[in-house]
Amino acid sequence: MSLMESFSTESYGGYTYLLTPSQPTNIDWSASSTSSYDSLSEENLKITSPEPFGRNKSRVTPFVLRKRRLAANARERRRMQNLNQAFDRLRTFLPQLGQDRQLSKYETLQMAQTYIAALYDLLDQLF
User: Fold this and answer.
1) Which intervals of the chain form a coiled coil (predicted)?
2) CA 83 vs CA 74, 91, 103, 109, 114: distances in Å
3) What integer best gives the mean pLDDT of the chain?
4) Domain 60-126 is in which class?
């Protein structure tokens, strides 16, 4: 009996899973065994990467790659627009110190941090 035959297997959704050994294996794991694993033949230990059927990376056409890239660009553009809108909304809650220009994102975060700390100190003084 080979090593692989001693394990029970089950298949689900195109994948084969090795379960616990159905019978105890008699493999000598002591130091006297050879380091080349002669008792474990390569024929019995073939490992294949489980890939779903119909998916092969080498068959992706340039058209599909371009559509994926365009979709990823659109998602990133939408993400950045939402982030910029959130910064604009945050700037409306911060006090204006007579600045002619819009605060950068970094300056906005610094100002918000300072403003929150000042409000906290004000509340602390009142109560």
Assistant:
1) none
2) 14, 12, 15, 13, 21
3) 77
4) few secondary structures
pTM: 0.51
- Dihedral of the alpha carbons of 9, 11, 12, 14, in degrees to the nearest 10: 140
Distance CA 108, CA 94 (A): 8
CB 30 within 8 A of CB 66: no
* 3-state helix, strand and coil shares in percent for the chain, rounded to the nearest 5: 50, 10, 40
Token duo for residue 112: 């918000």
Cα gap 125→47, rounded to integer Å? 69
Q: Where are the chain's structural domains? A: 4-45, 60-126
What is the per-residue pLDDT for 49? 55
